[in-house]
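ok so i was messing around last nite and threw this chain in just to see what happens. nothing serious, just curious
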Amino acid sequence: MTLRVTRFAGEYAAIAARTGDDEAVLRADEDYTSGEREHWLAWDGATLAGLLHPWHAPDGRVRLYFEACRPDAYAALAGAVTSACLATVGEDDEQAWAGLAAAGFAEVRREREYEMPVRVPDAPVPDGLRVVTGDATALEPLMMLDCALRQEVPGADGWQPDPDWFRAETYESPDYDPLTYRVALDGDAYVGLARVWNGPVPRLGLIGVLPGYRRRGLARALIARAFAPLASRGVSVVTAEADAGNLASHTLLTGLGARITGTAVELGRPAVGAG
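result:
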């Protein structure tokens, strides 16, 4: 049977039944209520078979996030997006692989997933530099540092500054903790950062240092200061991700005790009708 795909129009009860989420929580979720983000639903008659949440990222790419999908829902939902797009699946998720392959997706790159013990290494800040917490930063220079560092992150190059988005996703995010968001300064210049996002298991996000400040121990110093509040709270582990081809990140993470726990695969599809 061919699935019917519709754009979200307030079907909170059906989504709650499919995903197990609380309907009241869904109704309060800004992703649904603001109208700024599109959502697509796949239907088998009156039964919801899966959801798709496309995201137009600041790097110009369209990323697809599937949720609670039956195997046949992937291709049906992907058909709602006609532009070139990307989706990420677990290496062992055979159903998602097969569904996306049927929709014309092919592997683009791989990302290693890590579990890392919360240890505070002895890592002094290099001479002439200082490290501050997130609440001591200004939006614009931090945003520009973020964009500059992403240029060397596979799959994130081309990131464009967007103050409204950056404010919402950083300072106003419920996962933001200024004590675990550390930024290195050389005078007034922002030159590196390490950030850990709150969550059931905290996640070590971007670690980056600008060229000219590398190989001086700055990345380790930033991580040490981002981890110190976690250690004092009794947090024992964080998660992290790094491109499979990024040897420097792999060396840094494993040198601090991280171990690989899985692999995520990024798949891409050209625009419908392209080529």
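not much to say yet. The longest strand covers residues 106-117.
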